[in-house]
Specification:
- The protein is built from two helices and two strands, in the order E-E-H-H.
- It has a two-stranded antiparallel ribbon.
- A hairpin with a 2-residue loop joins strand 1 and strand 2.
- Helix 1 packs across helix 2.
Length: 118
């Protein structure tokens, strides 16, 4: 039995959060990691406006704010999905209704070779 090793190329990104240096490894785009860190930094900066807080407290509050944003986005996506499904069902019913009416009209009128009836 043979095994196949899969290797992914990992990139390192050096960032600074709350005065601490972190070297983060990613198998994805380093720009994405930088975007995440910038988002985190904005959340920390927002919290810092209310006054000085210890780093650990800032980190926990930022994490809670980010979790809140995440769950709100999930709720919005769920609601949007529900609205799209509801509208899709409505449109399908309209199409079925129209198709059935059109089919009955064709059957009732009978086929015509020139499009003008008999």
């Amino acid at each position: 039995m043979s095994t196949r090793a899969e290797y992914t190329t990992k990139s390192s990104v050096e960032v600074q959060i709350l005065g601490q240096r972190f070297v983060l490894k990613t198998g994805g785009d380093t720009k994405h990691v930088e975007r995440l860190v910038n988002y985190l930094q904005r959340k920390i900066d927002e919290l810092s406006l209310s006054g000085p807080l210890p780093g650990a407290k800032l980190a926990v509050l930022a994490a809670l704010n980010i979790a809140d944003d995440y769950f709100k986005a999930l709720d919005e996506a769920r609601e949007l999905k529900h609205q799209v499904a509801k509208k899709s069902r409505s449109l399908l019913q309209e199409i079925d209704h129209y198709s059935n009416q059109h089919l009955h009209a064709v059957v009732d009128d009978g086929p015509s070779s020139n499009g003008h009836g008999k």
